[in-house]
């Protein structure tokens, strides 16, 4: 049993369950009872809390993220740190600053990192096979958020399903001429969110028009550029799927700059539920960012505690949720 099972049975978030199991403040009595009852039924014990007694060398863990400044990583780091600190671990935040040279420096000298920490939590870090092998050989306990096909515990979402749900929402609204802003790496056909977009179209016997799929980075600026390029192509789609909310924000800017708006001229949907999505009225598929950070931190603590009889590494996918706001509507 994992903390996710307790969360599902109690109907509460993983962050709330984690706090309740550790008797931390800001948890209502009702929530505390729900968690206690669910944990009792499942026979779950918060072994991470007992990790204070585990014989670690440094009593520290490293959280490694591509950058420390974006909303996703800030939320995930904060939730993970709360679990680590309460479990008796100091945390070392390592920002790769989105620089290949920094990543090569960190993963090229894991022996040095192993002298400072007992374990590593990776947040959406893009590792090559050699770096994965080096991390496995380092002796460090490892867990991750948002990574695929890794030989350690991972927590994430089903990106393909999230994109399928977002695209299906547009199709359910009667939009058949769809455009997509998709990620630029490694190639679109291998990207789960682009795969989900294509699968939703295929469900309705539609195909992706090459002129209506534009690659862009997950930033507002590049979303704006990609949408501007899409408008220049003149395909006149009635709806747009953006692979992340920030790209969708840029698309909304570009529409406004061309005298257009959503949903009047084009319905727009993203993925993630960025904190600004509510303010801008963006329809999106929300992912539980803080819960992913907290869950992965719990898994890492349990891995550090159970060194003699470790469980087999597993991949845990948390649920996403469609949130319909003001940027999507039925085709007229």
Provide a brief overview of the structure.
It contains 13 helices and twelve strands. With 332 residues, the protein is of the alpha/beta class.
Strand numbers in spatial order across the main sheet: 2-1-3-4-5-11
Low-confidence stretches: 48-55
Beta-strand content estimate:
15-25%
Mean pLDDT: 91
First-last Cα distance:
49 Å
- Per DSSP E runs of 2 or more residues, the count of β-strands stands at 12
Overview of this protein structure:
It is a single chain. The longest helix is centred in the last third of the chain and has 17 residues. Helices cover 43% and strands 17% of the residues. 45% of the residues are buried. It is of the alpha/beta class. It has a 6-stranded parallel sheet, with helices on one face. It is built from 13 helices and 12 strands.
Topology:
Elements: H1 3-10, H2 14-21, H3 29-42, E1 60-65, H4 71-86, E2 90-95, H5 100-107, H6 110-114, E3 119-123, H7 129-137, E4 141-145, E5 153-157, H8 159-172, E6 178-182, H9 192-203, E7 213-215, H10 220-233, E8 239-242, H11 245-257, E9 267-272, H12 277-280, E10 283-286, H13 289-305, E11 315-318, E12 321-323
Parallel strand pairs: 1-2, 1-3, 3-4, 4-5, 5-11, 6-7, 6-8, 8-9, 9-10
Antiparallel strand pairs: 10-12
């Amino acid at each position: 049993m994992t903390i996710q099972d307790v969360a599902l049975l109690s109907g509460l978030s993983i962050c709330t369950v984690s706090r309740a199991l550790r008797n931390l403040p800001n948890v209502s009595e009702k929530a505390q009872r729900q968690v206690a009852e669910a944990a009792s039924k499942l026979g779950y014990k918060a072994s991470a809390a007992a990790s204070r007694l585990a014989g670690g060398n440094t009593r520290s863990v490293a959280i490694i993220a591509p950058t420390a400044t974006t909303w996703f990583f800030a939320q995930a780091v904060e939730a993970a740190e709360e679990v680590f600190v309460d479990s008796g671990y100091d945390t070392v935040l390592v920002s790769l600053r989105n620089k290949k040279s920094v990543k090569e420096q960190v993963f090229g000298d894991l022996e040095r990192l192993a002298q400072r920490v007992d374990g590593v939590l990776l947040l959406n870090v893009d590792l090559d096979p050699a770096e994965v092998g080096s991390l496995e050989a380092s002796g460090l306990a490892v867990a991750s958020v948002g990574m695929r096909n890794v030989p350690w515990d991972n927590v994430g979402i089903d990106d393909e399903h999230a994109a399928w749900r977002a695209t299906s929402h547009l199709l359910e609204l009667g939009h058949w001429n769809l455009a997509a802003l998709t990620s630029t790496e490694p190639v679109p056909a291998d990207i789960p969110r682009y795969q989900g977009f294509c699968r939703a179209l295929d469900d309705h016997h539609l195909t992706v028009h090459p002129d209506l799929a534009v690659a862009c980075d997950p930033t507002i600026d590049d979303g704006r550029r990609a949408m501007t390029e899409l408008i220049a192509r003149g395909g006149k789609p009635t709806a747009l799927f953006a692979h992340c909310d920030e790209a969708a924000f840029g698309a909304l800017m570009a529409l406004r700059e061309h005298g257009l708006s959503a949903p009047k001229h084009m319905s727009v949907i993203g993925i993630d539920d960025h904190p600004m999505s509510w303010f801008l009225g963006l329809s999106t598929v929300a992912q539980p960012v803080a819960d992913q950070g907290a869950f992965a931190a719990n898994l890492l603590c349990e891995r550090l505690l159970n060194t003699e009889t470790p469980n087999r590494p597993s991949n845990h996918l948390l649920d996403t949720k469609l949130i319909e706001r003001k940027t999507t509507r039925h085709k007229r």
